[in-house]
Amino acid sequence: MKITFLGHASLMILADGKKLLVDPFISGNEKVAGKVTLDDLDPDYILVTHAHQDHTLDVEQIAKNTNAVVISNYEIATHYGNKGIKVHPMNHGGSFDFDFGSLKYVNAVHTSSFPDGSYGGQPGGFIISSKGKQLYIAGDTALTMDMKLIPLSHSLDLAVLPIGDNFTMGIKDAVMASDFIECDKVLGYHYDTFGYIVIDQKDALKQFSDAGKELLLPKIGESVMV
Q1: Through-space distance between the first and last CA atoms of the chain, rounded to whole angstroms
Q2: Which among 104, 111, 113 is positioned nearest to 79, based on CA atoms?
Q3: Chain centroid offset of residue 66 CA
Q4: What is the pLDDT of residues 114-143, one digit of tens each?
Q5: CB atoms < 10 A from the CB of 225, how many?
Q6: How far apart, in whole angstroms, are the C-alpha atoms of residue 165 and residue 180?
Q7: Neighbours of 24 (CB within 10 A)
Q8: How many Å apart are CA 132 and CA 27, to the nearest integer?
Q9: If 0-12 CB within 10 Å is exposed, 13-18 middle and 19+ buried, where does residue 18 land?
Q10: Phi first, then psi: what are they for 26, rounded to 5°?
Q11: pLDDT tens digits for 154-208?
């Protein structure tokens, strides 16, 4: 799998020839300006972890532009389905085999509402299994004991964890989360986009290194392989 960082919590994942866009927040992110545009994105699927605006801002436009299938919890899928968008609803603990591989919807501890205040279901994360590789996308979440369940059924090659603190886990909890999920290679996201979640990147890298782990902080548009 090829994972391209698109800023904040947005990712483009290439898995077995299919493009999976995660939580698109492009047009409203000033740090992305001049680097990525909506016209650059042509996903086959859009994965949505929860309904907050910084994860859903561009879902509707991209889905209508590309005919992509939105995959999320039942409430979010219903929200977009009612707009004429193709959807695949999931819920916590469920798995489904797609043409890119297997997808499992797992727990996250956070909140979830659309910008107008309407209910966005319970937040979640995804585990993607494709061509012998396994990728965990935590979504916005606190450190949770449920993470200890993941290595009982999955052997992760890479984990994408929020590290910005304030609204999600910070660095210390992300290091602990990597222990819980038994994955020492972490791509950090959901940091530095706005004031509440600015981090000291050098300190973050050091904390992971001191724990014998690898933290990846790609620039917008950069990719990593698993």
Answers
A1: 5
A2: 113
A3: 20
A4: 999 999 999 999 999 999 999 999 999 999
A5: 10
A6: 18
A7: 32
A8: 34
A9: middle
A10: -110, -55
A11: 999 999 999 999 999 999 999 999 999 999 999 999 999 999 999 999 999 999 9
- The domains found in the chain, sorted by start residue, are 2-218 (3.60.15.10)
User: What tokens were used for 176?
Assistant: 């602990």
For residue 58, the one-letter residue type is: D
Instruction: Give Cα separations from 215 to 162, 169, 225 (angstroms).
Output: 12, 15, 14
Starting at the edge strand found earlier in the chain, the sheet holding 2-5 runs 87-90, 69-73, 45-47, 18-22, 11-15, 2-5, 223-225
For residue 115, how many C-alpha atoms fall within 13 Å in the half-sphere facing its CB?
Answer: 7
Whether this prediction's pTM lies above 0.85 is answered by: yes
CA distances from 52 to 24, 55, 56, 102, 123 (A): 11, 6, 6, 25, 10
Residue type, 115: P
Nearest residue to 214 via CA among 202, 205, 203, 226 = 205
What token pair was written down for 33? Answer: 């300006």
